[in-house]
Description:
Elements: H1 11-40, E1 46-52, E2 58-64, E3 73-74, H2 84-92, H3 99-104, E4 109-111, H4 118-121, E5 137-139, H5 141-144, H6 152-165, H7 168-184, E6 204-205, E7 216-220, E8 226-232
Parallel strand pairs: 4-5
Antiparallel strand pairs: 1-2, 3-6, 7-8
Amino acid sequence: xxxxxxxxxxxxxxxxxxxxxxxxxxxxxxxxxxxxxxxxxxxxxxxxxxxxxxxxxxxxxxxxxxxxxxxxxxxxxxxxxxxxxxxxxxxxxxxxxxxxxxxxxxxxxxxxxxxxxxxxxxxxxxxxxxxxxxxxxxxxxxxxxxxxxxxxxxxxxxxxxxxxxxxxxxxxxxxxxxxxxxxxxxxxxxxxxxxxxxxxxxxxxxxxxxxxxxxxxxxxxxxxxxxxxxxxx
Length: 233
C-alpha cells in the first residue's frame, strides 16, 4: 500500500490525456451551459472562489454560476437562491465543468480530494492535513462513495484512503464510478452537519458574486496562531 503522500508517476500525463479526449465535447457542452446561465439570470456566467490546493497554496476554482447574483447569499445554498438553470447544473454536476480550466493550469487533477475552503483546512488535524499532499480533484473516492450524504469525517477518511491507494487503475475505476454516480444523483444535495463550515454558516457569500462568503478568513497554523496568508472565499 502506498504511503508516500505524493502523486503516482504519470498522473499529470493522465490528466492531460483526459483533457485531450474531452476538450471538444466539453467546449460544446460548456458553451451551451454558459449561454443558458447568461440568458436566464442576470449576472456573470462563471463563479470563482478561492480554495486551498496542493501544499496549502490558494487558487481560484471555476464553476458555472448556479445562484442569483446577490451579495447576501448564504454559505449553504438556499433553494430560493438557486436559479432554474442552476438546479439542472447542480443535479448533473455540470456546474463543475469549468474546473477543467483548473486542471489545464495544473491547479487540480481529474481525480483527487475535492478542494476545500480555508475555514475547513484551518480545522484539520495533522493527519487530515495529508489531504493537501496531492492536487485536489474534480471527482474522487469520497464523491463516488456518497458525496454529501456522508459525514465530513468519513469524506476525509475516503480522501486519505485515496492518497494511500492512488494509481492509474484506481483513477480509471473512480471515473467509471463517477459516471454511475451522476446517473443516480446520489448525494448531490445536502450538507454534512459536521462540516467545519457549519461554524460560520451565518456568514454571507460572494461580494456580489452570489456563491461565496465575502470575508477574508485567516488560515490558522497548527499552533493556532493566525497565519499571514488570508483566504477570501
